[in-house]
């Protein structure tokens, strides 16, 4: 089941650059792992913004919730979720 | 070059159902052709809405504009365009 | 899988009262059928508005989409969809 | 009398994780008590967000106000309130 | 139980002035009746706008809904509803 | 001359609970005094929110401004002002 | 007593150009009369828009309401009203 | 050349009351000077808000920018700018 | 003096395609004339939208207003105006 | 390929004036370099605001992203990006 998730990162001013870089590294590792598992199926950067457009393939709403809540950057992001389904004109 | 395009259809009240169905059929044919050409690379329905989330791969902004303006449903849609690029955590 | 769906009805000015009443009767029958099937699990009126707050239990996003698109009043409504899941403090 | 209440939690940056966890534990206990009393009749998590959709059954507006103001997390939440009533197509 | 209700009238262009005046007369009569019954307890015009700010005293949400839906001008208004209760600094 | 004033309180995080309580006590005293003087003619709590809906009767815009600016909580509130007048359907 | 009033004109599509010109002429005459009476004290065009920024000096809210409701273009305008008073740094 | 400028002051929490009063005094002096020079031609307080509505008469956009940027309170204000011109119904 | 002007065209449903094409041809001629006169200094299409981003160089606000109001498409456009000036980091 | 980029600067309160001036100097140098390279083709100040309207000419979305992310002021700005293309009425 597919969801579009849009995330915008708001870097916290109360963390040092080192602390924030450590969180970003964890995020990168977690994102790569989810991609290899086929859960985070697309991940694009929005040009000019510290934001991404993502497509997740998950078992259900709960699965999506658990995956997103585990994002190391979650506390520093605005997140919006849009459930997707098959489009009648899609040839896939 | 990738763009996210979101389209919401507002069916016109001044067209008959037949006229509007004829336009939707042209749209479907055009959408399938663009998918086969590798230009409309993803096309998802937003669950519960007469709307889609799409990813286009085009040569440049002009190419995107020409492709979108030729959509038979274009006069009956709200369209938003977001330029995308490579995300540093993407493994593709 | 649960979704909150909020619907606001915008009665069309180009339909006669009879025509619109016929659509509302079909809507009522369809809504009752979906409730008996356990798909439309809650249906509340928003006090003072021609709107409702609803909870649907469906198999997946596609199922939700198909159920909503079949609503006879769908062309005359604004619809918003929110995916729900288990709350850690819920005792159900 | 039913109300939909939507709550979004904004974790405060000036509290330690321990302090905030203590508040969240009080919230959980209070939420469970209100559920057992039949006041907080539904409590769902919004998938992907630190937010909930809730249905409260209370005696009147004042009762709702007193119940919400006593939420330990209240100072860290955005809250919206929508009065509900019987829907003519509901079979309950 | 008190509610603030704000109403903005959008005069319909498809009605003749006579037809609309007939509806406004019914509205005036109904409003005066509800005021005499102690249900529509305050009714103020917003200066410069075709809008009002009103306070209703009703038995419950359902009562409010039934009263508002019966307004002859309801189909031509935007309505917003806010539940009120006792303020701790009020001396009434 | 009547005005609707809506106030939402944003408790400041840089004040101690004691300091803020002292300000709230001054506010309560001032609000009660204005009510006894017939200036703050209605004061309702919005159910579920740290907010109020108020009606002020003042000599003119300047009087309203002076009264509101003297509110001890003013620095911690969002305030909106709406000028009111006689409604043609009001029986008062 | 001063008010800022902003008006944006939405020319109606269901009137002929002649009919609308007749209304605009009445509006012009009425506006000039109110200016000569010292009620409509300033009237500026917003550059590039079919809109104005105006300052009215009136006896009270009711007077403002009566003056604005009598504008021949009122049914074709969006209007916003802001009560003004003396600024402590004004030298007038 | 005329511009409407609206300014809302957001008093900074990181300045002492003395420091902020010193800035406000400079602002008052500067505002009075600009008024005497015929640049800040109108200055009204918005009733109930820490905000003003102003009319500036300047040589050009650059002049407006330089005048506004020199406001001592500028760093603590939200500012909006609207270019004005002659209204065809103005008798001035 | 420079202004950014953004225009979005809303094709009117009550005009025939021929009538609207005639207006668009007049618009094109007028736009080209203003460009040759050095008034409409930049004119870009927004990719994917029936909209443009434009830069006008005019004598003053009044000149801008007169130029825009003479656009044949003006009645069918949403227009926003932003006054510009020299940027301190610009090397032009 | 052209993009309109709008930037609004929010000066950070946690930096000293010296530190922020150092960042602004780097920004100025970088902006001048990008202008000399023909990448930042237009740079205008919005009159009255700490904001700019810019036109960038870049190879593709990725190029735009890399150029913007390298702005020394980027962490202190709100940025919006609009892809542009040739307008059919442009004579350039």
Automatic annotation (TrEMBL), chains A, B, C, D, E, F, G, H, I, J:
A GO molecular-function annotation: muconolactone delta-isomerase activity
Q: What Gene3D superfamilies is this protein classified in?
A: Dimeric alpha+beta barrel
What are the UniProt keywords, alphabetically?
Aromatic hydrocarbons catabolism, Isomerase
Q: Name one Pfam family in it.
A: MIase
* InterPro entries membership: Dimeric_a/b-barrel (IPR011008), MLI_dom (IPR026029), Muconolactone_d_Isoase (IPR003464)
- The first-level EC class reads isomerase
Q: Which family does it belong to?
A: Belongs to the muconolactone Delta-isomerase family.
**Domain (Muconolactone isomerase) ranges:** 1-89
- Record protein name field: Muconolactone Delta-isomerase
The major lineage groups are: Bacteria, Pseudomonadati, Pseudomonadota, Gammaproteobacteria, Alteromonadales
EC number(s) on file: 5.3.3.4
Catalysed reaction(s) here are: (S)-muconolactone = (4,5-dihydro-5-oxofuran-2-yl)-acetate
Specify whether Metal-binding is a keyword of the entry: no
Q: In which pathway does it act?
A: Aromatic compound metabolism; beta-ketoadipate pathway; 5-oxo-4,5-dihydro-2-furylacetate from catechol: step 3/3
Subunit structure, interactors included: Homodecamer.
SUPFAM superfamilies found in the cross-reference section: Dimeric alpha+beta barrel (SSF54909)
């Amino acid at each position: 089941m597919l969801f579009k998730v849009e995330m915008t990162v708001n870097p916290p001013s109360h963390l040092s650059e080192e602390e924030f870089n450590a969180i970003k590294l964890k995020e990168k590792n977690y994102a790569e792992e989810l991609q290899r598992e086929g859960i985070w199926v697309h991940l694009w950067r929005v040009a000019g913004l510290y934001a991404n457009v993502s497509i997740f393939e998950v078992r259900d709403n709960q699965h999506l919730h658990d995956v997103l809540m585990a994002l190391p950057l979650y506390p520093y992001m605005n997140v919006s979720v849009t459930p997707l389904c098959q489009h009648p004109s899609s040839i896939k």
